[in-house]
Amino acid sequence: MKMTAKDQTQSLKYQLRSPMTKTKILLVDDHPVIRFGLVTLLEQQEEVEIVAEAEGGQDALDKLEQHKDIELVIMDIKMPDMDGIEATQAIDKKYPNIVVLALSMYDEQDYISKMLEAGASGYILKNSSSEEIMKAVRMVMAGENYFSSRVLDMMVSEYLREKGVANTTEPEEVVLTEREKDILKLIAEEKTSIEIGEALEISQRTVDTHRRNLIDKLDCKNTAGLVKFAIKKGYSNTEK
Fold first, then answer.
1. Is the domain 5-155 a CATH 3.30.930.10 member?
2. Which residues pair with 99 in a beta bridge?
3. What is the pTM for the complete model shown?
């Protein structure tokens, strides 16, 4: 499967973004204390700006109607009136260029899968450090995916469980170059395109080209699919 139009648009927006441009954020959580903590944390970062806050899914959709400059929604899951899964589906349908980053206390596979299927570009936990939250923001705004280590562990466990009970014919083997294998390994280790470029001594543009080619070549939907493939083929030490 080819790179989605949303991924391509977001990657292009990131490449054209001025270093002085702030990412406009909508915070969605039904607990005022959580929102206050996030605002306090994010306001210390020069590269982001909190444009609005919402206490539920429907409130988030209303805020998006009022603030046309919002680029990123940091979304809780369990909320009254409309949960984060339904709200993310609505945002993905009506505002395909807006990125959603799930921020939840729940690390169950069911929540993770439903948020990703709804259109979220990443999933982090509420006990994440400020550094990890900002890393997640940067990566999803660059058109990539980001998952907290615990979330990634759950995804790997689910994949291994499915692998153990699956009884399907293996697809035709895809031959990868050594460079593609190196890039897959670093993607599975949650490295950004910039970090991969530095490690392999190639440009970020070259890394992004390899990433898009791998998504097409391996018939993946996004970077999360590349991570699963890397784990399956042993290009990553994540499952060890």
1. no
2. 72
3. 0.67
